[in-house]
Amino acid sequence: MKLAAWNVNSLKVRLPQLLDWLAQARPDVVCLQELKLEDAKFPRAEIEAAGYRAAFYGQKTYNGVAILARSALADVTTGMPGFPDELKRVIAATVGSVRVVCVYCPNGQAVGSEKYAYKLRWFAALKEFIAGQMQGHPELAVAGDFNIAPEDRDVHDPKAWEGQIHVSEPERAAHRALIDLGLADSFRLFEQPEKSFSWWDYRMMGFRRNAGLRIDHILVSAALARRCTSSTIDKAPRKLERPSDHAPVVAEFS
DNA sequence: ATGGCTACGATCCGTAGA
User: Fold this and answer.
1) In angstroms, rounded to a whole number, what is the distance separating the alpha carbons of residues A99 and A94?
2) Positions of A marked catalytic
3) In this structure, are residues A254 and A231 in contact, taking their beta carbons and an 8 Å threshold?
4) Nucleotides of B under 7 A from a protein CB
5) Which of A13, A27, A78, A131 could form a disulfide with A4 if both were Cys (CB 3.0 to 4.6 A apart)?
6) A198 CA vs B14 C1’ separation (Å)
7) pLDDT tens digits for A115-161?
8) By the 8 A CB rule, do A127 and A83 touch?
9) Nearest nucleotide from residue A113 CA, by C1' atom
10) What is the dihedral of CA A192, A245, A22, A16, to 10 degrees?
């Protein structure tokens, strides 16, 4: 099974790139973030014509998540129980024996801001939600845009970013709390090139300078980690005209 | 000098992202 996560930064704008990428990469399951469209405008026909079923949870302008799969999506849930949120950030579904949780974690804007406090509250709720999901689902993946670079090696310029949003210690502690539930960062199960990132700023020629962050992750339970045969970042779509600022991350399982 | 793009929905600028 090939599982991917991609923040497309507007599904409307990126749909042609997504369809091309699905045809080339042929993932079995794809977690999408930042659809930026309401459910009535979800391009269901195009996605189905590409061979995928879809569960989606969208909203206008901001946020919005979806799970695409070549086989059936069962037990679809949206949001997190116990954490009412108007922002559409979480959708989960079972594909085969694997529970897939697709997340678009809050950005946080700036350390100390109201949005930062919301980000930390949100991650506390995510930890509880995932702990619950793990109860009934030994094979579990949490995939998406976490908006946290877990370690300095996930940051192009750790000095410049020190203490900033995406790398601050409370954010990294929130990420570690997920790992401590018994999840593994699939990317770090394997030897990886130095300076591997999944997001690059549109400004300042960020991609050309490889001035990026690794903030998109596929976290896997122990049972799934044992089956994981690769975990990579596909930079090809970031090189296209009018790209998303995020690249897809991809993990394969035996 | 702390912004520089991009997307969006509102107008030709503000909000948000990361």
Assistant:
1) 4
2) 104, 145
3) no
4) 3-9, 16-18
5) A27
6) 28
7) 999 999 999 999 999 999 999 999 999 999 999 999 999 999 999 99
8) no
9) B16
10) -160
